[in-house]
Amino acid sequence: LCEHRYICYLIDVAGHGAGAAMHAVAIANQLRQKSLPNTDMARPELVLSTLNELFQMDDHDGLYFTIWYGVYDARTRRLDYASGGHHAAYLVPTERESAIPMRTRNVVIGAMPAMNFTQASLTVPAGAACYLFSDGVFEIVDRDGQQWAIEDFVAQILQPPAAGSS
């Protein structure tokens, strides 16, 4: 956007195979090129709304997707974000005492036309880490045969870093 604002996002297309992969590429290209029509890329709720109109599943072989989209302003330390059907991203302050979920309750992208999307904002404390990830990092079965939930992964990101690493 500019020298002090940064965009980050994660897209997760439902399904597998070449069709889902090509759909993800088409969406990512729209975002990377900042080519969404009549959309301020610094406003997450508008980005999700435009993506929802452009990528209706009825027009795209039944494909829909979830997204987490954020805009960080380094001068003010403000993070504006919105999620469309995606689980929370987490902000972890340097003390690692808690993980702050960052999620807005919006529908998946492409399921229903003409939806209103909401965004939220927070101030990022100095030294905090933001964890943005797909469900593949926590939907695993551990060595004991137990299925993980997101809470299991959040417990892991609260652990201190390994010696010698950040």
Give the SSE string: EHHEEEEEEH
Rg value: 17 Å
Q: What order do the strands of the largest sheet run in, or round the barrel if closed? A: 1-2-3-6
How far is the N terminus from the C terminus?
Answer: 28 Å
Overall mean confidence score, pLDDT: 94
Low-confidence stretches: none
- By DSSP, the count of extended strands is 7
Tell me about the largest β-sheet: 4 strands, antiparallel
| Estimated share of beta-strand residues | 15-25%
Give a verbal description of the structure.
The protein is of the alpha+beta class. The chain is 21% helix and 23% strand. The chain has a four-stranded antiparallel β-sheet. A three-stranded antiparallel β-sheet has the order 5-4-7, with no helix packed on it. Strand 2 (65-73) and strand 3 form a beta hairpin. The longest helix has 16 residues, at 17-32. It is globular and about 50 Å long.
